[in-house]
Design brief:
This protein is an alpha+beta fold. It folds into two domains: 188 residues, NADH Oxidase (3-Layer(aba) Sandwich); 139 residues, Nuclear Transport Factor 2, Chain: A. Helix content is 33%, strand content 25%. The chain contains ten helices and 15 strands. Helix 2 crosses helix 5, helix 3 packs antiparallel against helix 5 and helix 8 packs across helix 9. It is elongated, with a radius of gyration of 29 Å. The N terminus is likely disordered. It binds flavin mononucleotide. The site of flavin mononucleotide (FMN) has 9 residues, from loops.
Length: 359
């Protein structure tokens, strides 16, 4: 054996002898705010059982672990526990092995080299296709977990599951809460004592986008945009600049009849409302219908008003006549959930303008 081979065999022997548990994965800071409100996440929450063949990003993995069982105060957690026992542990079961979540250290500590996802899946093979399953375990060695309190940790596990569901809904991840799993195999592989109960597991991954699935983040973001449009309806009907600033990006450029160059932000947009009100003091936009997606919302408006204001409109003097017309707009939203582009359907007016019949 040459010198090089000797060195290699020593390295290999050392690697093989390194004990399980010595491998710690330091997690990045939990992923920041997804911009989705709790209400939107609640509307988007659902069980999903098909996962894309893609590893979870470390930020999202860190985020969902923190949501499940992390610390949000120096000594207390995102999840409530009966009598503040904090008896819940979360394990991340992945292809590369099984890891215990060290919430204080924001790390994953390896406890098993095996891929235990099939044991988590049990008879439901779909669960093994998720890149990670979170296993919710409870240490019930404390004597309080007897008699009337014997099921206390079951409730605590349910709260952790709720946190996972909401985090996934807000971040576009697919997940499902599961009671079924191969308990005995998991306890053996994880070297857990009888006083540890395995309550629930959550396969988690990006949605496969396949049949019957909805994409969580899109549905949550679509819901956010839908809500923004409802507020936008209020904003244009009340000419509320403060509300407008919350809904419209400062960078949004709008082509308006009041200026040859685009006007920007809420001020620019609402200058059209101000202009309309001078000729049609009672002008209103009713949101009739909308189709909302993650980035774009299409709205059908019913716009109506009475031409009895002080200012002429399109060269005509106010004549007291009332109009009601359908208007269509496409709004594009930026990452902060603000409108930054608005394309309006000009319809017949576009033709008339094009041929010089109207200005
Ligand atoms: C305690 C509990 C245990 C569950 N166990 C399983 C399970 O073993 N397998 C599974 O596919 N779904 C399981 N589910 C998911 C439910 O079937 C699911 O929540 C239900 O069908 C409602 O659908 P939704 O979550 O989309 O509202 C479980 C849910 C809970 C709360």
């Amino acid at each position: 054996m040459g010198m090089k081979a000797v060195v290699l065999s020593i390295v290999a022997a050392l690697a093989a002898s390194s004990s399980v548990g010595s491998e710690t994965i330091k997690l990045p800071a939990p992923d920041g705010d997804s911009g989705v409100t709790v209400t939107q996440a609640l509307k988007a929450r659902h069980s999903e059982r098909a996962f894309a063949d893609k590893e979870l990003s470390p930020e999202l993995l860190s985020g969902v672990l923190w949501a499940a069982n992390g610390f949000n105060r120096p000594d207390k957690r995102t999840n409530a526990t009966g009598l503040n026992k904090q008896e819940i542990s979360v394990y991340a079961i992945m292809k590369s092995g099984a890891y215990r979540y060290d919430a204080k250290g924001n790390a994953l500590v390896k406890v098993c080299d095996e891929d235990l996802r099939p044991a988590v899946a049990g008879h439901q093979s779909f669960a093994a296709t998720a890149p990670v399953s979170l296993l919710i375990a409870a240490d019930v060695s404390d004597s309080i977990y007897t008699g009337a309190r014997s099921s206390l940790s079951n409730y605590d596990a349910g709260i952790v599951s709720g946190n996972i569901y909401l985090y996934c809904a807000a971040n576009g991840l697919a997940t499902v809460c599961r009671r079924s799993m191969d308990n005995d195999a998991l306890k053996k592989a994880l070297n857990l004592p009888d006083t540890t109960m395995l309550h629930l597991n959550h396969p988690i991954g990006y949605p496969s986008g396949g049949k019957g699935t909805t994409v969580g983040a899109s549905s949550a973001k679509a819901e956010r945009n839908r809500e923004a449009m409802r507020l936008f309806e209020k904003c244009i009907n009340t000419n509320d600049l403060e509300l407008g600033r919350k809904l419209i990006s400062d960078k949004a450029a709008f082509d308006t009849p009041v200026s040859p160059t685009p006007l920007y932000g809420a001020e620019g947009y609402l200058s059209v409302v101000t202009l309309m009100r001078k000729s049609f003091p009672d002008v209103q936009w009713k949101l009739v219908d909308m189709v909302a997606e993650e980035k774009t919302v299409a709205v059908q408006w019913e716009c109506s008003g009475t031409f009895n204001g002080d200012e002429p409109f399109a060269g005509l003097q106010p004549n007291g006549r009332r109009f009601s017309t359908t208007v269509m707009n496409f709004y594009t939203f930026d990452d902060d959930g603000k409108i930054f582009k608005d394309v309006a359907a000009t319809g017949i007016a576009g033709i008339l303008k094009g041929i010089g019949a109207i200005k």
